[in-house]
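To: structure subgroup
Subject: Chain for Friday's discussion

All,

I'm putting the inputs and outputs inline so they're searchable in the archive.
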Amino acid sequence: MRQPERLLINLDLTELDTNLMEYAAFFCDKMDIKHLLLIHNMLIEEPPEELKKLYPELEEPLEMIVQREIEENINRFFHQADLQIEVQIFQNENISDIVKWVRKQNVDISLVGKKVVSEGQGFYSVQFLRLTSHPVILVPATASPRISKILAPIDFSNNAINVIRTAHQFALDTDADVSYLHLFVLPPRYFPYLPKNTENYQEEYLRYAEKEFEKWKKKSIKEEKTGPAYFQLAERKDIAREVYLWAIRHQVDLIICGAKGKSDAEVLLLGSVSEKLITTDYHIPLMVVKQKEHYNWLESLLD
């Protein structure tokens, strides 16, 4: 992951915007962000004539009202003299057209709000995440604008290269501590679980896992020093839940996971653990990193 310079915020004119602005301001303070893009897709029409007569202030075009509200928040949260800020307002645009525009901006990281399921997960946020090839951070309303501890769940596929590299660089950029977590399960042949066999398998697998992590770490960041790696037998089948519980116990501020899969369908599905972390009510910001080359076909299709 290169040093991020272009940060994008997806706004929806709800209370989540304040949280996103605070989170983005943290990034701008910690990193050398040079260009900030704020986008909003207006999904409402101009008010009818009857309403305009009752409320004269609505004579002003809605786009100007929205622009002014966004600029008020910009003045509230961003004070860097050298930060270039651009606001782009769309009106009833398809998500594919927005993603096409975003791709042309060479964005390094995007922020989107993460709503709880009871309020509606947010079709736009999930689709934006699926269709873009750069890293996207889902920011829940309860998130604090700080990153002091990062957790990077890893498997031992090519996906690990991106996750380790991104987590390591992100920790350097934000002065945070990073740790890596690999969860494994017992193979079916150990059912019913016999204590002796289980212990032997865990010992063998831990030796294998430590070697594998060192291999992928060297491919990712060569000989650079990074945070510790932990290898743990999953207590339940829901790996995403295990990741989240680990993050809670260790007071993690950001989870960085990878979207894996080489086929077209797998690219859109992101990977089962990532999918579960995205679509459930977890209250820790989640960053999803991707292998850009897997999205070439999708970008061609959008064009």
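Points worth raising on Friday:
The chain has eleven helices and ten strands.
The chain has two domains: 1-143, 146-303.

D.
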